Amino acid sequence: MTGSRISERIRALREARGLSQRALAEAAGISAAALSQIESGQTSPSVATLEKLADGLGLAVASFFLDEGRRSDVEIFSLDDRPGVRLGGRCRLVPLAAQWLNSPFEPLLVRLEPGGELSEQPFGIGGETEYVWVRRGRAVFEYGGETHELNETQSVYYDPRKAHNWRNPFEGPCELLMVHGR
Questions:
Q1: For tag attachment on the chain, is the N or C end more exposed, with fewer CB atoms within 10 Å?
Q2: Per residue in 129-141, pLDDT tens?
């Protein structure tokens, strides 16, 4: 999926809810100028910004990437069939939930290239709990002014409303399975 497609999707979802750019920006906790730049395709949003926009719209992050499919009680898919998008910060995001699924949690696969990060600075989002499992490689987790190094197969639960960030300062890529509550 291209950055312009994400920009168009964000604008369409905002307009479908009857929100102005300023109203969504306030609900998401970002500046109206940043939202304008994202919607016009001048800049690509970080994972942190996508999470904030999804929270502001009351949707899953997957809503920005997946077209609404056939409704079913069971959804089976291959990771290879899911659209992924490259975001700023040397990061690739793959949504693992359908946008229409009314679930109290949302799984995402995040691939951080060497030197990659979710956001340029620590951020907080809605929801009371987030779980992250290091599927491959190693990552640095910043939380509450402390830095934690997590290795492959380690995991952590935390409150995502507090400032946090994920970085990969290592030589190899890192994959994180993130599951956040809505």
A1: N
A2: 899 999 999 999 9
